[in-house]
Automatic annotation (TrEMBL), chain A:
Cellular compartments annotated: Cell membrane
Topology versus the membrane: Multi-pass membrane protein
Transmembrane annotation, as ranges: 28-49, 95-115, 127-147, 159-180, 215-237, 265-284
Annotated GO CC locations: plasma membrane
Superkingdom field: Bacteria
UniProt domain ABC transmembrane type-1: residue ranges: 91-283
Keywords assigned by UniProt, alphabetized: Cell membrane, Membrane, Sugar transport, Transmembrane, Transmembrane helix, Transport
Protein name: Multiple sugar transport system permease protein
Similarity-based family: Belongs to the binding-protein-dependent transport system permease family.
Region: Disordered, residue numbers: 1-23
Keyword Zinc-finger: no
Entry-linked PANTHER family: ABC TRANSPORTER PERMEASE PROTEIN MG189-RELATED, ABC TRANSPORTER PERMEASE PROTEIN MG189-RELATED-RELATED
Protein's GO biological process: transmembrane transport
TrEMBL record, chain B:
Family membership: Belongs to the binding-protein-dependent transport system permease family.
Any single GO BP term: transmembrane transport
Listed GO CC annotations: plasma membrane
InterPro entries recorded: ABC_transporter_permease (IPR051393), MetI-like (IPR000515), MetI-like_sf (IPR035906)
Keyword Transmembrane helix: yes
Entry membrane topology: Multi-pass membrane protein
Location in the cell: Cell membrane
Bilayer-crossing regions: 31-55, 97-119, 131-153, 173-198, 228-247, 283-304
Keywords: Cell membrane, Membrane, Sugar transport, Transmembrane, Transmembrane helix, Transport
Lineage of the organism: Bacteria, Bacillati, Actinomycetota, Actinomycetes, Actinopolysporales
Protein name, UniProt field: Multiple sugar transport system permease protein
Primary location recorded for the protein, binned into one broad class: membrane
Top-level taxon: Bacteria
């Protein structure tokens, strides 16, 4: 903060150069443009908050960004009681798919990225090359063959059909390799080996703690990736009790043109689905920001 | 499949630079244990499906004889591919996505870059507030982003249809509307990546530019942008891959408008062919084409990026 103030100070007082500064870089214009970008980004979310307080009739009688009569409790009650509380099941499923999936997936990626960066073994180069190819394969192109494979293994419409494929995160391996190279010095590994620590123990006790910001970053971004994934559950699942939030809300939204009473449910449900991720990003800000920095240094 | 992709080979070379030296193969056992879970996942959920899609794309289901014995698989070589690339619905979807990409990719990345440069500029205050505000939409899942904007576009509920020059849910407005949703979702994410890279530009370099009399815009164009070029290229690759896969947002908008057909993008075409029409061969061929085009495009961009940064 103090550094920023100093820079600002010289900008304001120390205009000794003869060149007239461009009006586009004046403080007012810069902040006006930033304000527009921030409004564009935040206003739709403000709409989501104000709309979740409205009853069905108030959508057309009130303007988009104003609060109406406080109808949020009634909307929440309707949301959680709809179809025997299926919304709660969707929330639980999303937490399982994304929460457990992200932690487990990130651990698997980090172990592999660490090994590729720090250990010598046959096939290391091939594995990394194939992993990079995996980054390029679009997930929508994989969904159909995955569905057919799952149907042969009788896994369609089960938890595992969605959970297992989403664990795979080739880009996480790439990031983990970068983090391991930047954050784990060879001397630390050497010292652990001299102390008689086995390789697995060295990874969990020495390397993983050193890679912690990177590890948290991989978890967080894989969490969002799984939380956001829609195509795979759409293809794999038919039992509403197994749906994640995004698929469930989508299914409700397909009914709104016939049954407008789903509108408040869709809107209030969307607010609840977005809320925890925003909180996670704000709370873990320091961690993922430093993780991104480490990733981009390379 | 994987060996024929140029991206894989250039990636393989990158490993040579930063590898450990003089480590003996006695560590092989532990390394295999550390890598095995990911290697198995990669094999089971990426390589096997890719191979399976290639295989499927060469066959079609036909009713044999009078149809009493059920459908049987018939080898048709590239017949499915020929069907797909001559199908007007598929070509229409390709056209939509191409037009979408030509507008959305530069718009979103340009916006992200401008905001990152503005926050990075010396006069900007409250940097953390702007960063987080613009980043927030990244936390919104694609389905929910589609729903929010779908409502905002709807006449009577959202304000946009009354101020926009064209109906955002009409035949002419739907493409800009989808572009807007994707730009809203991804601008902040790319902005944070670009901003993070800008933070690593050496201060001496910026100081030298200032001493030489370069203004803020000149410094941004001739010093900052070249320094973060590799990051910009990575952002470009991921944005192009994302654009080709366009699926969720148009599908969600189908609840709000009839302007999005069931084959509006190639990904929707795959979904429609497989799960509505039940033609797995055709759907697999379209999947393979989609994957191939996206892999080749990304490899080309990466090749250009590698050549530039040399």
């Amino acid at each position: 903060m103090s550094a920023a103030t100093t820079v600002n100070g010289t900008g304001r007082n120390g205009r000794r150069g003869r060149k007239e500064p461009s009006p586009w870089t004046s403080r007012a214009v810069v902040h006006a443009m930033l304000g527009i970008a921030a409004l564009y980004s935040v206003l739709p979310l403000v709409w989501l908050v104000t709309s979740s307080t409205k009853s069905l009739g108030e959508f057309s009688t009130t303007s988009a960004f104003e609060f109406a009569d406080w109808n949020l409790p009634a909307n929440l009650r309707a949301l959680f009681s709809e179809a025997d509380g299926v919304f709660l099941a969707w929330t639980r499923n999303s937490v399982l798919y994304a929460g457990v999936g992200a932690v487990l997936g990130a651990l698997i990626c980090t172990a592999c990225g660490y090994a590729v960066a720090k250990l010598e073994f046959p096939g290391r180069r091939t594995l990394f090359a194939v992993t990079l190819t995996g980054v390029l394969v679009p997930t929508t192109a994989l969904a159909l063959p995955l569905y057919l494979m799952a149907s042969e293994l009788r896994l369609v419409d089960t938890f595992w059909a969605v959970f297992l494929p989403l664990l795979t995160n080739p880009f996480g391996v790439y990031l983990a390799r970068v983090y391991a190279e930047a954050a784990v010095p060879d001397e630390a590994l050497e010292a652990a080996r001299i102390d008689g620590s086995g390789e697995l123990r060295t990874f969990f006790r020495v390397a993983l703690p050193m890679m912690r910001p990177g590890f948290v970053t991989i978890i967080l971004f894989q969490f969002v990736q799984i939380w956001n994934n829609f195509f795979l559950p759409l293809v794999m699942l038919t039992d509403p009790r197994l749906f994640p939030l995004s698929l469930g809300l989508y299914q409700w939204s397909t009914r709104v043109s016939q049954f407008p009473q789903y509108n408040p449910l869709v809107i209030t449900g969307s607010l609840l689905a977005v809320f925890p991720i925003i909180v996670a990003f704000l709370v873990l800000q320091r961690q993922w920001r430093s993780g991104l920095t480490a990733g981009s240094v390379k | 499949m994987s060996r024929s992709l140029p991206g894989a080979r250039s990636g393989g070379r990158a490993v040579l630079d930063g590898g450990p030296s003089g480590r003996t193969s006695r560590l092989g056992g532990a390394a295999v244990l550390l890598c095995a879970p990911f290697a198995l996942l990669l094999l089971g959920t990426v390589l096997a499906p890719v191979t399976y899609a290639l295989y499927l794309s060469l066959f079609t289901e036909r009713l044999s004889g009078l149809g009493f014995s059920g459908p049987s698989s018939v080898f048709v070589a590239f017949g499915n591919y020929a069907d797909v690339v001559t199908d007007p619905d598929f070509l229409h979807g390709v056209g939509n996505v191409a037009l979408y990409a030509v507008i959305q990719v530069p718009l979103m990345l340009g916006g992200a870059l401008v905001v990152a440069l503005l926050i990075d500029s010396a006069v900007a205050r409250l940097k953390q507030v702007w960063l987080l505000a613009v980043f927030l939409p990244y936390a919104v899942p694609g389905v929910i982003a589609g729903l929010i904007w779908g409502y905002l576009y709807s006449p009577g509920i959202g304000p946009i249809s009354s101020i926009a020059p064209i109906d955002p849910l009409g035949a002419n407005g739907i493409l800009p509307s989808v572009v807007n949703i994707a730009t809203w979702q991804w601008m902040g994410y790319n902005m944070i990546i670009f901003y993070t890279a800008l933070q690593t530009v050496p201060r001496e370099l910026l100081e030298a530019a200032r001493v030489d009399g370069a203004g803020p815009i000149r410094t941004a164009l001739s010093v900052k942008l070249p320094s973060i070029r590799p990051t910009l290229f990575v952002g470009l690759v991921f944005t192009i891959i994302g654009a080709l896969q366009l699926f969720t947002e148009p599908l969600v908008l189908r609840s709000f408008t009839g302007a999005v057909t069931s084959t509006w993008t190639p990904s929707l075409y795959v979904y429609d062919s497989a799960f509505v029409a039940g033609d797995y061969g055709r759907a697999a061929a379209a999947s393979v084409l989609l994957g191939l085009v996206s892999a080749v495009l990304s490899a080309v961009v990466m090749r250009i990026s590698a050549r530039r940064s040399r």
